[in-house]
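Two quick folds needed for the group meeting slides. Do the first one here.
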Amino acid sequence: MDRSAVMRWICVAVLPLAACRHAPPAEHPLMGLSSPMARQARETAMNSVWQNHTLSELVAAKGRPVLVMQIPGGGNPPGFVVVYGIDPDTGCIDAFAVSHDGDPRVRIYHCR
């Protein structure tokens, strides 16, 4: 390999890699926000408050959800998920599984 081919290879392969190392690393805004224990504690607390309450009670307290999603296959028992925003203290995306049985009720809360 002649010198010009080596220099071309260096310019094509090595220089872009060297330029990347100067970029400051960026952390995801929610990474390191809280410990897994804090997230688990929120999940436990939210379940103790909201399990078996009606959807209308949840909406009255928290407002309209940001997103409503169907559970693939319908869930057991059949239902859907209502998603609220991100809890600033834990980084949890608040998600409530709601059953369709009679008056829709919160089955379970998940910290996502």
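Then this one, please, same format:
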Amino acid sequence: ILALVGFYLGANWALFVFIVNIAVLAVVGYILSRLMPERAPGMMLEIPKYHLPSAKVVLFKTWFRVKEFIVVAWPIIIVGSVVLSLLEHYDIVTYINMAFSPITLLLGLPIAVGTTLIFGILRKELAMIMLFQALGTENVISVLSKTQIMTFTMFIIFYVPCIAAIGVMVRELGRRDTAFAIAIGFIVAIVVGLIVRLVGLVA
């Protein structure tokens, strides 16, 4: 997500998204800790000495990340593009976009981006990538304003965890707490998205 923001808006905007992400997590975490105080056990960690990584380790880690994207994300992107094309062909995408229209219109986004929210649940970056298909162009900046791109990005980051994260949360927290966490994330996403939109309109 940061890479796509950096590509369209520049490195400074990508850094801004990162900082806002950390700030929002800190604020929400603080509020929840005050509303639902819980005694946290102490934890001691032995911090190893820092070493300059070898070229072999760097290459291995790089390949590990690239391989994950190639093996997992690419097939989803390809299948997702085919599915979205079929939905557009049979005009089903119109009904999906209408279902998400209360959210997209509230955030000042085109109705066409509604379908991308579904793909964002599979993997966060897919929502950004599937914008190309949904908007019918790779030049997103020609269709969306900078404010809309930032609003969409901030909403995607917080609105619903990806499927893998939800699975872990259900296993570790249970269904009730997972549903609560998803609801909190969705509310935060709406609030942050609206703030970005309003700031963009005023600026």
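Slide caption for protein two: The chain is about 75% helix and 0% strand.
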